[in-house]
Write a sequence for this structure.
RNA sequence: GCCGGCUUGGCGGAAUGGUAGACGCGCUCGACUCAAAAUCGAGUUCCACAAGAGUGUGGGUUCGAGUCCCACAGCCGGUACCA
């Protein structure tokens, strides 16, 4: 050791305000090794059946190559706080985590890097797991699942087979096995037409560049990412979600979900009540759907969609050419082109239909503003009271007949689409209100046999197949002799994709699996279905598999399911937190599957998620959406390295209300870090050697003296308890800051007061609180030996919150003029007298007459004078 | 267009119809230091003190409105010819 080297500390190597870099990983290792947050199932040894259950669920992440972004810890910290709190208040808490690991991005990434998707997927999962453990979340990691695991795929396919073997029994309003229909002598074809999982040829969203079809719900999203999505007629697997439309709306009602999300789902399902009306045309019947049967007397023409099956039959020879040309033009248009321009187009077919209410003949047109897939694909046009019909009629010079007179005389009747009106020009309906006329007309149509009341939904069946490699293969084979599809036996599940060198989509609408020639050949007569399921399949039921993730005999043990999902009405997951992006997709699909499982008695509730909370998006520091291209992405790894996991957790909860959209501010993380450092320094001091040791400030001396610090502690316990219950984490943290500030300025703090603060802070900042507690316990040996997180949540003593005196606000004409301090229980008269005696009050009432004095005991006195 | 949501200091945000701006950031001043950082303390809605004004705008209810009612504007999100 010859030379003496002097180290100068770089600013970037500045010492941490408290040694989180040492103790955070240490506590994480302890929790891992001791399985601190493992929760037992009923039937397992040591399970405590006397405790109530609480199932707290996060939307599991899609393990992308980019790793966690700061949006993930937002919801995950919120649920972690509630989970830790619930454990301390005596619940068996199920708080699991897993991976939504199938899906297009994983496959796109694999293709790009030339690696097999399973390799990249599992590497990404390892990274995500590392990042989540680094944040100290209290998951029961023994329940971890990945949707790509063969043991999971097996049961996803098993549920699919349930759907395949089921139909919707309209009488019982539930799913039933198709074997019932077989027994009744239904033909194979008839049965295939009612299965909940069925094959149909139809117009679908096909993306040539991704080489797959997409669900209606997904098409827009991928389009916005720059992919091409066009309409193409293909044979695809569908799930009959429309059978559940009614229940998906009705059973939404009692759930504790944000109203806005319920509304989004209701709008997506799009229920409308109206009638089908039969018009005749040269002996043929054309049925139209309308929500306004009351306006039938105002129907001046009819419109069929260009694809309507009767168009060719009714078109006259003179109009044939124009009609065919128009049909061809529509067919070549992409969806986008069709919606881009709202200019009305259409052609006359030359044919006329007879309006059943008055026998009048009205012309039949075709136009692409009438959609094939909704209602009957044909409408009666009432231009006076429908904006689209009005626009069309004006453009093509069709007659407009008023049948509703708006109640508000100033509103013109043309293009009046409201319901607050009275019927005119409508024979027997004249004088009725719109709702009355609607009812009356439906009754009339039904009586005369011209039509019937009818409910329609915008919701379409769910396009369930994809032409990709990285998804669950369908457990289905095709018989080349009879051309039918058959389920493979359950004993052959899971059916995994074959190992393939080349799994790229080839543009073949049968998907890349067709290239696995050996795998395809199931038997001499049968070949395998080569489509795979969409990513949603795995996420539709993952919350159920957590209950019993290792069960090889069943998808869940019924007793276990009953315990975690059953319970008080409506039951299910007690708290589900995630982003709004899943408002209509995942949440609708999962509800649908759950209902099918419920119909079979496989789950005990008709809804999976009793309470749903959407966390708000975290924006970049520039208040823009975080994105790589903007360069405003915050990486949790960097924040944890610099400020520690507790700071990141606490900051994300302190930013503002969980549900709101809020911008990231790294300066705010610093503030939180300072707060935690202050909590640390209440008990700890750095000695000469630069080591942190207990300071003398924490005293064992403990009597019942109600010090200001003790009052503050109990106020804090009260506030934090209430705030966790309604997930107002930001205000809970403010209160803990105030409490800490009180301790910082106090000359001494008793160990019991300090430990109680650590206790309520523990769910928010588990590492620092456990560390401080373990250090304290070395000196204060009477403290319980177990970790804080295993102890009981503290209760506040109401006696400590009672104030002897109160500050009363004195107002003159509603404006603050003075404040007085009086006994907390001072009677009204005393307050009034004291207020009137105030010199400030006299100043402001001088020359005026006191008209009235309002006294709110404990709060204020308002003197009204003029 | 339609349907939701939001709008409070320089910034993030707090306020059972009852002191608007808790808590934090930033800033200013002070203590400590040779100095700085860190830390601690004081201050910080606007305006020149008092007075006054003030929660997107305009009205209303009330002794009293950020909070309730009516109308409007701006921003964000969803949806888009669904008869």
């Amino acid at each position: 050791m010859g030379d003496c080297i002097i180290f100068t500390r770089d600013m970037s190597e500045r010492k941490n305000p408290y040694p989180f870099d040492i103790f955070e990983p240490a506590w994480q290792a302890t929790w891992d090794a001791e399985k601190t947050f493992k929760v037992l199932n009923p039937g397992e040894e040591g399970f405590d059946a006397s405790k109530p259950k609480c199932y707290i669920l996060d939307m599991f992440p899609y393990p992308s190559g980019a790793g966690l972004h700061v949006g993930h810890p937002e919801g995950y910290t919120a649920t972690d706080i509630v989970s830790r709190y619930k454990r301390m208040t005596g619940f068996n808490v199920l708080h699991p985590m897993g991976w939504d690991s199938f899906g297009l991005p994983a496959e796109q990434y694999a293709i790009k890097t030339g690696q097999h998707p399973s390799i990249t997927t599992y590497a990404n999962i390892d990274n995500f797991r590392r990042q989540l453990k680094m944040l100290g979340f209290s998951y029961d990691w023994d329940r971890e699942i990945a949707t790509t695991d063969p043991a999971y795929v097996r049961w996803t396919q098993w549920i699919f087979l349930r759907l395949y073997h089921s139909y919707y029994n309209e009488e019982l309003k539930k799913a039933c096995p198709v074997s019932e229909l077989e027994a009744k002598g239904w033909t194979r074809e008839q049965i295939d037409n009612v299965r909940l999982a069925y094959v149909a040829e139809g117009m679908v969203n096909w993306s040539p560049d991704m080489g797959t079809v997409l669900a209606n719900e997904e098409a827009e999203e991928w389009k916005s990412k720059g992919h091409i999505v066009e309409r193409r007629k293909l044979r695809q697997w569908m799930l009959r979600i429309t059978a559940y439309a009614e229940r998906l709306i009705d059973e939404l009602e009692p759930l504790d979900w944000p109203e806005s999300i319920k509304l989004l789902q209701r709008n997506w399902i799009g229920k409308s009540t109206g009638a089908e009306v039969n018009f005749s045309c040269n002996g043929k019947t054309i049925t139209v759907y309308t929500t306004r049967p009351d306006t039938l007397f105002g129907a001046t023409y009819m419109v069929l969609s260009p694809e309507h099956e009767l168009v060719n039959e009714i078109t006259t020879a003179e109009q044939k050419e124009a009609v065919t040309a128009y049909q061809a033009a529509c067919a070549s248009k992409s969806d986008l082109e069709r919606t881009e321009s709202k200019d009305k187009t259409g052609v006359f077919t030359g044919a006329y239909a007879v309006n059943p209410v008055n026998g009048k003949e009205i012309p039949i047109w075709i136009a692409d503003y009438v959609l094939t897939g909704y209602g009957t694909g044909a409408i009666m046009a009432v231009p006076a009271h429908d904006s689209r019909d009005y626009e069309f009629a004006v453009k093509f010079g069709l007659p407009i007949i008023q049948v509703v007179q708006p109640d508000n005389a100033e509103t013109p009747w043309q293009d009046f689409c409201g319901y607050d009106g009275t019927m005119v020009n409508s024979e027997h309906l004249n004088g009725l209100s719109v709702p009355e006329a609607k009812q009356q007309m439906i009754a009339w149509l039904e009586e005369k046999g011209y039509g019937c009341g009818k409910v329609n939904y915008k919701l379409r069946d769910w396009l369930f197949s994809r032409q990709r490699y990285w998804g669950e293969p369908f457990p289905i084979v095709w018989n080349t002799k009879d051309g039918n599809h058959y389920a493979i036996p359950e004993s052959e599940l899971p059916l995994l994709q074959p190992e393939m060198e080349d799994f790229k989509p080839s543009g073949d609408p049968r998907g890349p699996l067709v290239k696995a020639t050996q795998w395809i050949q199931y038997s001499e007569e049968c070949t395998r279905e080569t489509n795979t399921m969409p990513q949603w399949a795995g996420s539709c039921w993952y919350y159920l598999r957590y209950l019993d993730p290792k069960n090889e005999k069943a998808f869940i043990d019924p007793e276990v399911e009953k315990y975690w999902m059953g319970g008080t009405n409506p039951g299910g997951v007690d708290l589900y937190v995630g982003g709004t992006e899943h408002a209509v997709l995942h949440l609708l699909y999962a509800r649908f599957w759950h209902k099918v499982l419920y119909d079979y008695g496989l789950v005990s509730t008709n809804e999976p998620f009793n309470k749903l909370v959407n966390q708000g998006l975290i924006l970049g520091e520039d208040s823009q959406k975080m994105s790589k291209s903007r360069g405003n992405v915050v990486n949790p790894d960097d924040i944890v390295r610099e400020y520690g996991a507790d700071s990141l957790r606490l900051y994300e909860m302190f930013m503002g209300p969980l549900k709101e959209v809020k911008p990231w501010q790294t300066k705010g993380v610093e503030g939180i870090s300072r707060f935690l450092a202050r909590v640390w320094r209440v008990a700890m001091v750095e000695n000469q050697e630069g080591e942190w040791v207990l300071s003398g400030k924490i005293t064992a001396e403990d009597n019942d003296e109600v010090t200001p610090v003790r009052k503050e502690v109990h106020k804090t316990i009260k506030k934090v308890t209430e705030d966790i219950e309604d997930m107002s984490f930001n205000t809970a943290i403010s209160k803990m800051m105030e409490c800490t500030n009180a301790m910082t300025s106090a000359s001494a703090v008793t160990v019991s007061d300090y430990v109680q603060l650590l206790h309520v802070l523990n769910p928010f900042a588990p590492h620092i609180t456990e560390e401080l507690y373990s250090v304290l316990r070395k000196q204060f040996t009477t403290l319980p030996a177990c970790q804080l997180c295993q102890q009981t949540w503290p209760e506040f003593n109401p006696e400590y919150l009672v104030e002897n005196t109160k500050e009363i606000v004195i107002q003159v004409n509603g404006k603050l003029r003075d404040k007085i301090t009086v006994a907390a229980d001072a009677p009204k008269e005393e307050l009034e007298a004291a207020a009137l005696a105030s010199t400030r009050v006299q100043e402001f009432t001088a020359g005026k007459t006191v008209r009235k004095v309002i006294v709110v005991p404990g709060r204020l006195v308002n003197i009204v004078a003029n």
Q: What stands out?
A: Residues 475 and 495 of chain A are 6 Å apart (CA to CA).
